[in-house]
C-alpha cells in the first residue's frame, strides 16, 4: 500500500488526505466529530489513494474539500463575534436608506415587505433551494466533470474563491441577519445559535426538524454579510454560459432568482448581503476566469486529462499530443529542428 501511495504522489504521499483525516481525528478526540466530518475524511482518503483516476478526481474536487474544512473550522474556533464588532441595526438602517419601501405610512425593508406574502406554498417553494443547494451544486459539478473538465475546474475554484472571501468577511465583519434583529433588536448575544428563521414553519409543516438540524451545524449566527446562498447558482451559470443550452441557462437563471427571493422572504439575509455576495462572485470570477481560460475545447473524458499539477506545468507531460493543434505544433517543431 505504501508503494502504491508513493507511485501516486511521490515523496509527499503522506500529505494529500492528511488535513481531513487529522481534523476528523482531532474532533473525535474532543467528542465533537459528526458523521459529515468522518464522511469527508473518508472521501478525501479514498479518492486520493485508490487509483490514478481517483487521484485526478481528488485534485479536481479539492476546492470543495477545502471549503468544507475552512468553513467548519471557523465554527469550531468560536469567539468570532465580539458584541462591539457585530453589525445589527446598522445594517437595517442601511437597508431602509437604500431599499426601503413605503407601505401604510411605514418604511419597510424588503424582508418586512415580503413577509406580508407569507403562505405555506411560498414557504415550501423557498425551502427547495435552501434545502437542496448542496446536492444541486454537487450534481451540477459532477455532470460537468464527466462532460468538460475545464468547466468543472472553473466551477470548483470559483466556489472556493467566493467562499474564502465570504468566510474572511464573517470573521472580520460579523453581521446579524434580519431574523435576529427582529427577534432581539440591537443587543448582541455572543452565544446565540444559528436559526432556520422562517424555515421553522416548513419543519412544523413537514413534521421533521430538517432545517433546525441543518442550521444547528452553522459556523456562526453572525454570518449574514455576505449571503453565500445567493452565489451558489452563479457558479454553474458562469462556468457553463458558453456551452449551456437555452433551456439549461433559463433553468439556472430561474434557480438564481428563486434563491435571491428565498433569502429575503425567509428572513435570512438583507438585500445588501445578497449584493455583496454577487460582488464577491464577480471578483472571484475575474481571477478564476483568467487563471483557467475556457477556449471552447471539445468535451473530453476527465480520465484523459492530466492532473491539475501536471496541467499547471509542475511536471513534464509526455506522450502523444492531445489535440490536432498540438500534433501540428509538434510536426512544425520537428521540421524546424531538421532545418537547423
Describe the fold and architecture:
- This protein has 340 residues and is mainly α.
- It is built from 16 helices and 2 strands.
- It folds into 2 domains: 1-80; 84-295, no CATH class.
- It has a two-stranded antiparallel ribbon with strand order 1-2.
- Strand 1 and strand 2 (106-108) form a beta hairpin.
- It is a multi-pass membrane protein.
- This is Inositolphosphotransferase Aur1/Ipt1 domain-containing protein.
Percentage of residues in helical conformation:
55-70%
Shape: globular
Strand content: under 5%
Number of domains: 2
Radius of gyration: 23 Å
Mean pLDDT: 86
Name the strands of the widest sheet in spatial order. 1-2
Give me the number of helical elements: 16
SSE string, helix = H, strand = E? HHHHHEEHHHHHHHHHHH
Kindly name the structural category. mainly alpha
Which residue ranges are poorly predicted, with pLDDT under 50 across at least 5 consecutive positions? 298-325, 332-340
Record keyword descriptors for this entry.
two-stranded antiparallel sheet; disordered C terminus; single chain; 16 helices; 340 residues; mainly alpha
Please outline the helices and strands.
Layout lengths: L1 H8 L8 H12 L5 H15 L2 H26 L11 H11 L1 E3 L2 E3 L1 H6 L4 H28 L1 H24 L5 H7 L14 H8 L3 H7 L15 H9 L5 H20 L5 H21 L16 H4 L12 H16 L1
Antiparallel strand pairs: 1-2
Helix pairs in contact: 2-3, 3-4, 4-8, 7-8, 7-10, 7-13, 8-12, 8-14, 12-13
Amino acid at each position: 500500500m505504501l508503494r502504491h501511495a508513493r507511485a501516486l504522489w511521490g515523496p509527499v504521499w503522506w500529505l494529500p488526505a492528511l488535513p481531513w483525516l487529522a481534523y476528523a481525528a482531532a474532533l473525535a478526540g474532543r467528542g465533537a466529530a459528526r458523521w459529515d466530518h468522518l464522511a469527508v475524511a473518508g472521501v478525501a482518503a479514498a479518492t486520493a489513494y485508490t487509483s490514478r483516476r481517483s487521484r485526478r478526481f481528488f485534485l479536481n474536487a479539492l476546492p470543495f474539500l477545502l471549503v468544507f474544512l475552512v468553513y467548519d473550522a471557523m465554527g469550531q474556533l468560536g469567539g468570532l463575534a465580539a458584541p462591539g464588532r457585530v453589525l445589527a441595526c446598522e445594517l437595517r438602517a442601511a437597508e431602509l436608506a437604500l431599499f426601503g419601501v413605503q407601505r401604510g405610512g411605514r418604511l419597510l425593508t424588503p424582508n418586512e415587505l415580503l413577509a406580508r406574502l407569507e403562505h405555506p406554498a411560498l414557504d415550501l417553494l423557498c425551502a427547495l433551494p435552501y434545502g437542496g443547494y448542496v446536492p444541486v451544486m454537487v450534481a451540477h459539478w459532477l455532470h460537468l466533470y464527466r462532460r468538460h473538465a475545464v468547466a468543472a475546474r472553473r466551477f470548483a475554484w470559483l466556489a472556493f474563491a467566493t467562499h474564502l472571501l465570504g468566510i474572511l468577511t464573517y470573521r472580520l465583519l460579523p453581521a446579524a441577519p434580519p431574523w435576529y434583529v427582529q427577534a432581539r433588536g440591537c443587543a448582541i448575544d455572543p452565544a446565540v445559535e444559528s436559526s432556520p428563521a422562517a424555515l421553522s414553519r416548513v419543519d412544523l409543516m413537514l413534521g421533521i426538524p430538517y432545517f433546525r438540524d441543518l442550521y444547528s451545524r452553522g459556523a456562526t449566527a453572525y454570518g449574514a454579510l455576505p449571503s453565500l446562498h445567493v452565489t451558489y447558482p452563479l457558479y454553474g451559470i458562469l462556468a457553463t454560459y458558453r456551452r449551456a443550452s437555452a433551456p439549461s441557462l433559463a433553468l439556472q437563471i430561474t434557480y438564481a432568482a428563486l434563491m435571491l427571493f428565498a433569502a429575503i422572504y425567509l428572513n435570512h439575509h438583507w438585500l445588501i448581503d445578497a449584493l455583496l455576495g454577487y460582488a464577491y462572485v464577480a471578483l472571484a470570477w475575474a481571477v478564476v476566469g483568467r487563471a483557467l481560460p475556457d477556449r471552447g475545447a471539445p468535451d473530453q473524458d476527465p480520465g484523459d486529462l492530466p492532473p491539475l499539477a501536471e496541467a499547471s506545468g509542475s511536471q513534464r507531460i509526455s506522450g502523444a499530443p492531445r489535440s490536432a493543434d498540438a500534433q501540428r505544433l509538434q510536426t512544425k517543431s520537428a521540421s524546424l529542428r531538421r532545418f537547423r
